[in-house]
Amino acid sequence: MRKVGVDDKDIESSEQGLLKNTQIDEKASPEEKKERQYLFRQSWEISVNVKLAAEVIRSAIDAGANKTGDIDWRLSDRKALQAKAAEAALVKARAVAEKMAEGLHVKLGALIYASNQTPPSRIYFPAGGGGGDSAQVMVSADAGEPVPMPALEIRPQTIREQATVYAVFAIE
């Protein structure tokens, strides 16, 4: 992982296990039987920038990992996205208020009061995403041979934020 640019602080052991191997070939020599009597499994969680996600998975497989878990997509600056959503909601609220004022034959004045409520985050799945996103990849390894596989292409999830704004405008 270090060779592909992953810092030690971004690698966490998440699970280890030692199991009795019940599938030893009866034709194996006593030395092989002794050597293979246990199976050790270890899993790691690795947090990296989206651009490194495919490289981390490829590197883990090349090193002997034979199972990867789901990718957990996270946004590095959710507050900035929430602020952008609130700003867009306020612009939309002003447009709606202007239409209402026009229908009432009055002129819309200044914003008097606004409150911002952001609902729980929702993640949508179309391709895309920003450079500030990160991915958390779970990788594990069992005893066994690495398997060649085709090139990996990782496409991050698009993360969108919604905001609800209650706005009060003056009428002139």
Structural class by SSE content:
alpha+beta
| Oligomer status | single chain
Q: What form results from the Cα inertia axes?
A: rod-shaped
Walk across the major sheet and give the strand order: 1-2-6-3
Can you tell me the number of structural domains?
1
Q: Which range best describes the helical content: under 10%, 10-25%, 25-40%, 40-55%, 55-70% or over 70%? A: 10-25%
> Which blocks of ≥5 consecutive residues have pLDDT under 50?
123-149
Strand content: 35-45%
Q: Report the order of strands and helices.
A: EHEHEHEEEEE
Query: Taking Cα atoms only, what radius of gyration do you get, to the nearest Å?
Result: 26 Å
Taking all residues together, what is the mean pLDDT? 77
> Count of DSSP helices?
3
What's the gist of this structure?
The chain is an alpha+beta fold.
Describe this structure in words.
The protein is α+β, with helices and mostly antiparallel strands. The chain has one domain. About 25% of the residues lie in helices and about 40% in strands. The protein contains 3 helices and 8 strands, in the order βαβαβαβββββ. It has a 4-stranded antiparallel sheet with strand order 1-2-6-3, with helices on one face. It has a two-stranded antiparallel ribbon with strand order 4-8. The chain is rod-shaped. The N and C termini lie far apart (about 65 Å).
